[in-house]
Structure to design on (420 residues):
């Protein structure tokens, strides 16, 4: 019996995607260092180019599902909200809170990645200096007029074919609002898109199974042409800077919580400590949804408020993930030698604000959003393969922060409803 349990435990352990990614990272690093130390720089460069094809395959698989995923999930989410006028008082307060919290979270990520600049000077991602200069010039010339012209699609088919994510978002918003305004007549269409979104979500799970191969190829390629110490320092700087950012976000959330809830904030924290720990350990804020619902109702929030706010929050209010998106996107640009001016970064923040609302709750959704955003700004999407090895550890903190943000939003809106 013990032998069977041990075998099952071992199988479960090795079957864990995060474990597979970490093993792939280790094997890739060992192979890369071996090539770096035993072959000429020219041979190592050739090897790096070939082995990185594994990372390219993974990246293209991710890009393949971005357009249909954003369209189906965003349309369904908007349609289920109903007509904006009928969302009512609670919906207005909820969306106001969600978008404000999202903006602050994104801003915090943008501030700290610019303050610490963990990707500056490392050139982790191979990109021709001339190309980097062209991209920098292009992004710096990305004016408000160009932005407005860029977000309106001439053709939704063209937008999907070229993965113009923001154009897809604009079309999806109009489509979702139009479907909601018609009412029950559009239910078959929305149900079909809902089922389609679940199929694509299943595809996301399949695609992520290729992540270890992508990580292996990316890490082996990088270690083959660069010194080990520089790469370890880079990862340490990235993770350390991220922790400073996520800590700052917690300070802001707790401060705002005490402003609105006063002494009740301490009681709320005691109530949600269990969901926070579970989310941290499992890297899944969705895993604690039932428990969080129960604890918030015990805290004194009406069940109708909780049942409305939490599902909405899990789609629109993932504060930890939002902070990570700006941080990771700008880090990849820094590691590529691409300089983004403040105007371009604010434009990126707006893009992330919109695109993230479409695929929140998707497994490793942050990476999908980061990939889509990098693609829009001509930043090498290969960067997501390089941050995958430590993404799990970042995700632990992101998930717990998402739970805190949703618990706080639900509690504050519940308090406002009592006062009205």
């Amino acid at each position: 019996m013990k032998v069977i349990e041990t075998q099952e435990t071992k199988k479960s352990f090795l079957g864990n995607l995060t474990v597979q990614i970490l093993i792939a990272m280790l094997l890739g690093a060992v192979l890369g260092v071996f090539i770096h130390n035993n072959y000429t720089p020219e041979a190592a460069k050739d090897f790096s180019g070939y082995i990185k094809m594994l990372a390219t395959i993974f990246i293209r698989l991710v890009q393949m599902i971005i357009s249909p995923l954003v369209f189906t999930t965003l349309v369904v989410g908007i349609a289920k909200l109903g007509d904006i006028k009928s969302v009512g008082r609670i919906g207005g307060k909820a969306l106001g809170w969600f978008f404000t919290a999202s903006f602050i979270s994104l801003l915090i990520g943008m501030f700290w990645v610019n303050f610490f600049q963990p990707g500056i000077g490392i050139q982790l991602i191979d990109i021709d200096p001339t190309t980097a200069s062209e991209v920098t010039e292009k992004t710096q010339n990305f004016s408000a007029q160009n932005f407005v012209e860029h977000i309106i699609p001439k053709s939704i088919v063209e937008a999907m074919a070229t993965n113009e994510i923001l154009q897809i978002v604009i079309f999806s918003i109009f489509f979702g609002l139009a479907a909601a305004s018609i009412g029950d007549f559009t239910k078959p269409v929305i149900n079909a898109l809902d089922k389609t979104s679940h199929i694509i979500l299943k595809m996301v799970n399949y695609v992520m199974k290729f992540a270890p191969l992508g990580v292996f190829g990316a890490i082996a390629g990088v270690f083959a042409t660069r010194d080990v110490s520089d790469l370890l320092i880079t990862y340490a700087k990235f993770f350390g800077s991220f922790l400073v950012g996520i800590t700052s976000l917690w300070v802001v959330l707790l401060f705002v919580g005490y402003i609105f809830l006063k002494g009740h904030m301490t009681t709320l924290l005691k109530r949600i400590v269990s969901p926070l720990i579970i989310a941290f350990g499992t890297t899944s804020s969705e895993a604690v949804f039932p428990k969080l619902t129960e604890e918030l109702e015990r805290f004194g929030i009406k069940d109708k408020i909780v049942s409305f706010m939490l599902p909405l929050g899990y789609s629109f209010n993932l504060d930890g993930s939002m902070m990570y998106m700006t941080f990771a996107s700008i880090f990849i640009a820094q590691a590529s030698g691409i300089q983004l001016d403040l105007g371009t970064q604010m434009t990126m923040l707006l893009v992330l604000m919109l695109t993230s609302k479409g695929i929140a709750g998707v497994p490793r959704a942050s990476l999908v959003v980061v990939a889509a955003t990098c693609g829009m700004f001509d930043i090498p999407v290969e960067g997501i393969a390089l941050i995958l090895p430590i993404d799990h550890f970042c995700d632990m903190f992101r998930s717990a922060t998402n739970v805190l943000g949703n618990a706080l939003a639900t509690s504050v809106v519940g308090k406002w409803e009592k006062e009205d």
